[in-house]
Amino acid sequence: MASIDRFEEIYSLYWQKVYRLCRGYAGEDGKDLAQETFLAVYENLPRFRGEASIGTWIFRIAANLCLKHVKKPVYASLVGDYQEEVRSEDEKVVLLHRFIQELKEVDRLIISMELEALPQAEIARITGLSEGNVRVRVHRIKDILNQKFRQHGFE
After folding, report:
1. How sure is the predictor about 74, in pLDDT bands with cuts at 50, 70 and 90?
2. 20 exposed, middle or buried (CB, 10 Å; 0-12, 13-18, 19+)?
3. Angstrom distance (rounded) from CA 109 to CA 50
4. Contact (CB, 8 A) for 27 and 78
5. Using CA atoms, how far apart are residues 68 and 78, in angstroms rounded to an integer?
6. What is the pLDDT of residues 11-26, one digit of tens each?
7. From CA 127, how far away is CA 131, in angstroms rounded?
8. Which residue among 31, 64, 87, 118 is buried most deeply as judged by most CB within 10 Å?
9. Could you tell me the CA-to-CA distances from 9 to 14, 61, 154 in Å, in that order?
């Protein structure tokens, strides 16, 4: 019973962050990927060794599932879904989601985790990159996103 209580606690703490990470990577398929992540967490929780923080472990599972996700044209469905879902949201938010979808796979994961305020050291552990490489990639991704916003008339 303790493992169910522990899972429920983990789920309530991490669901939104994992969902946003997966959504940033895969659009509407993000919900399915987030659910798959927590299914894997539930199944593997008894074997969690504590070599990393529980959050790092969960994000690593989510990142692996996102990277395994079969690439398909997400852009059209993403824009259509967002038009209904975020009518009240600012145009910049819709564009940000679109621009993130256009990034390379690993860059999508990195910026999604950065937007979730994960420390870059943790992002490095999750992605298997060095902290310096993560720092450089975050800077370059932000430059790319800023450039795209300027091309769409935002300063």
Report:
1. very low
2. middle
3. 23
4. yes
5. 19
6. 999 999 999 888 887 7
7. 10
8. 118
9. 9, 17, 41
Total-model pTM:
0.63
Which residue in the block uniquely carries the two structure tokens 């600012």? 90
For residue 127, the one-letter residue type is T
Residue 36: its pLDDT value, please? 93
Tokens of 105: 């796979």
Q: Quick one: three-class SS letters along the chain?
A: CHHHHHHHHHHHHHHHHHHHHHHHHHHHHHHHHHHHHHHHHHHHHHHCCCCCCHHHHHHHHHHHHHHHCCCCCCHHHHHHHHHHHCCCCCHHHHHHHHHHHCCCHHHHHHHHHHHCCCCHHHHHHHHCCCHHHHHHHHHHHHHHHHHHHHHCCCC
Structure tokens at 81: 């879904």
Q: How many whole angstroms separate alpha carbon 145 and alpha carbon 102?
A: 10
Burial code (b: 16+ CB inside 10 Å, e: under 16) for 92-106 equals eebbbbbbbbebeeb
The whole-angstrom distance between residue 5's C-alpha and the CA centroid of its chain comes to 25
Give me the pLDDT at residue 72, please: 44
* Residues 6+ positions from 75 with CB-CB distance below 8 Å: 98, 101, 102
